[in-house]
Each structure stands twice: as C-alpha cells, then as structure tokens.
Amino acid sequence: MSAPPPKSYNLAIIGGGIAGCLLSIGLTARHIPHTLYESASQFGEIGAGVGFDAHKVRTMALIAPEVRDAFLRCSEPPSDENPVWFTVRVGDMRRAGSDGVVSIGGELGRKVLAGEPVFNVPSRPGPRGGVHRAHLLDELVKLIPAHVPKFQKKVVDVTEANDRSGDVVVSFADGSSARHAAVLGCDGIKSRTREIVLGKEEAKPVFSGKYAYRGLIPMVKAVQLEGVGKESKVGSQMYMGYHGHVLTFPIAKSSIFNVVAFSSKESWTNAEWVVANSREDMLADFDTWCPTVKAIISEMQTLDIWALFHHPVTRTFYQSTPKICLVGDAAHATTPHHGSGAGMCVEDSYILSELLAETDSAGDLEKAFRTYDEVRRPRTSELVRTSQEGGMLYDFEGPEGDDLEAIAHSMKERMGWIWDYDEGLAEDLERARSILRQV
Ligand SMILES: Cc1cc2nc3c(=O)[nH]c(=O)nc-3n(C[C@H](O)[C@H](O)[C@H](O)COP(=O)(O)OP(=O)(O)OC[C@H]3O[C@@H](n4cnc5c(N)ncnc54)[C@H](O)[C@@H]3O)c2cc1C
C-alpha cells in the first residue's frame, strides 16, 4: 500500500513513558511527523510489574501489530481454560479465631479461612497479564525510529509563536527551544503540560488516601514462602483486609513474583511521593495479617513507601492557544486499583493516532484534539473515579463494608466495564470520526 500524502505539520510528544512511546509508534505507523522529547538521558521504567487485560492487548495491535508482538515477547502465554484475573482471599486476621476462620460480613464470610481462596474474578480470554515494565519499554523503544527521540530535554514551557503561524514554541530547561505545530503532553502525573493547560492549582494531583510498597521477589524464592508455592501456577492473588490489601502476580514470564502491598493514610504532607521507610514500620503495617502475607512482606527488599496520587476532576484534555493535547497520566492520572492506567494510555494512543491520521493540515489539529477530548475524557475520568472506589472496596472501606458477596459482585461489574470494551472503543472511534468529518 502506498504511503498517504505527507502531513503539513510536525508534532512534539513530551515524555517517553508508556503513553509517549505508544503514541510515537502510532504516529510513526501513520506517517505523522513528530519528535519525542524526554527529560531523562534515556528511556527508562522502574523495576516493577504492570498488567494489561486482553482488550488492551488487542488494542495494542490496533496501534500497530508490532506493539502487541512486543507485549507477547515479555509475557507468559495465558491459559484460557480458566481465565482468572485475581484469586481473592481475606489476608487480614484481625477477625480470625484461633482456628484461622475469619468472622466477616456476608454469607460467604462465614466460611472464610484466612489466606484461603474466597472467590475468583474471572478475566477475559486472550493474551494478557503481567510484564516487567522495563522489559516492555525496551521492546517498545525498538519500534521508535532513531531520529524521533531527543533526550535530556526537560520541557519548562510551551508558548504560541509570535508570528501568527499558530505554531507552538517548546522551551527546555537547557535554554534551547523547538518549534512545532502542536504539543502532545505525555509527561505523566506531575505533568508540566497539564499545568499549562489547566493552570498550576487545577493541575495539582491529589493524594488518594493510599500508599503502597512495591517489591520483586525471584520466583524460585517466592515459591518457597509459606502458602505461595502451591499456588505459583494459579497466577495472581489478592489478599483483602481492613484498610489495606496485597496483590501478587507473576511477571517476566513467571520468573519474578511482583508484589504491591497497599495501606491507608488520611493525608500526605511530605513533598516527596516516594520516601524511605524502615523494615519495622513496613512489617508493622501487616502484623495482623495471615502467615502467607507476612512471609511475602518480610521478603521485600525495597522498603520505600509510594504515596498514591491521582487527578480526579479534569475540565479538559486540550487547549487551542498554544495547541496542547494531554495523553495518558498527564490527562487522567489514576490510582492503580483497577490496574488500568497504562491500559488507558493504550486506548488514548490508538484513538488519537487514528484521528491525527485523518487530519491533514495544522489548522485542523484543534478539531482533532477537541474530538479526542470528547470521546476519551468521559471514560478515563470514570476510570479515575471507580479506581479510587476500588481501592476502598478491597480495603473494606466502601458501602459494601466487608460483605464478601457484595465485594465480589462490585469487583466483577467494575472490571467488566473496563475489559468488555472492544465494541465500545470501535464505536468511540466511529463517533469521533463522524465528529471530525463534520464541517
Ligand atoms: C503501584 C502502581 C501500579 C500500577 N499498575 C498498573 C497496572 O498493572 N496496569 C496498568 O494499566 N497501569 C498500572 N499503573 C498505572 C501506570 O503505571 C501509569 O498509568 C502509566 O505508567 C502512565 O504512563 P505515562 O507514560 O502516562 O506516564 P509516565 O510513565 O509517568 O511517563 C512520563 C514520562 O515523561 C517524562 N517527563 C516528565 N516531565 C517531563 C518534562 N517536563 N519534559 C520532558 N519529559 C518529561 C518522564 O521522565 C517520563 O518518562 C500502576 C501505577 C502504580 C503507581
């Protein structure tokens, strides 16, 4: 197939995380000229896991088939016989008798042995699951042409060019600047581009009431921990409790046991979001929990606390002067409780790439951004809302309390809304295209 006519514009992507890389691949596949500016000296992700559901993996292929292939190279082929997202247990023993039976809400709760499976949240068939973030990013980066990324380019400002061209001038911390038709802000939860669009106050992320410990344990070691080994083949586990929950899932083709352990806190006053902590304090957060959870926590090598912030209310994802469009966490930073913040980067990148593919002149970019905002903001804002509620649900802080049937029902409903979206996304794109084509 011959290449489409060249675009009369050149875009700037700010930020080379999952959103910036996916968008760059999407634009490259559609012959849309752009440069990616990243503040760090190279692409990089933290040493932790990230999970994608089957719908997001299918959407990766719509950005470009190579994105899905990249994911598959990092992930374990799923068993579709009994697809399970998480096997859910009660890990907190505060309400347990000496026999280990937890006295907890709902009919299900009467039979619960601490640490033993209570219910499964079924996932959907198809490739999906956890990968090591750095491994995935390494694979994605290979799909970005060498001339596209520019490193050590920290964006400090975006202004309109003063020659009535409608171009934007991107200014960097090193004193240099670059001119583009528009900016695609993929600069994450602490986004500078969001500040420019919304103003400093409105752009501020908000503490969600939760913090997390994150750890990677070699699988050979994890399977020796009490209660873990026999379930190594089962996959992902969630241990619920009062004001906390613990997730474990295999990554790096099951060679690493990824742990995220959550706790609650009313407020966060520290200017830093990742702070050092003592082993005693970390263990104390889970000292009422079952032996399996305690064994997992005691094996964690990183003690840092990650305060979890999000950006719950967003008036707009774009502005016209200077032209900026927000993508990924820059647009809709979410808590991780539905494991879908990066998944929304996938959906955003697909929709925006497709809309830009249909936009031939710089004068039409604003319309493309307005259309993207119209179809993407409702869904992603809802994710931010339901994800925060999800964290409270797993920690027995929601209206369901510790009623396990009500929690199971709510979890399945919330996850279905995120996962069963192949048709929804196709409809969103169709609707967006018809808006874009209106004169
Ligand atoms: C504990 C935890 C677990 C999670 N688990 C999951 C999961 O299982 N599944 C899932 O889908 N999501 C998950 N998420 C959410 C997911 O990690 C994020 O939604 C996703 O990584 C956001 O990607 P991003 O590219 O938008 O932002 P980022 O990854 O933050 O990337 C932003 C990039 O922009 C660069 N940058 C920043 N400022 C500037 C600047 N001024 N100039 C130039 N460059 C700049 C940064 O260096 C960085 O490279 C989790 C989040 C947390 C906290």
UniProtKB/TrEMBL annotation:
This is FAD/NAD(P)-binding domain-containing protein. PROSITE patterns: PROKAR_LIPOPROTEIN. The keyword Ribosomal protein does not apply. It comes from the Eukaryota. Keywords: FAD, Flavoprotein, Oxidoreductase. Residues 183-386 form the FAD-binding domain. GO terms for molecular function: FAD binding; oxidoreductase activity. One of its GO terms (biological process) is secondary metabolite biosynthetic process. The keyword Thylakoid does not apply.
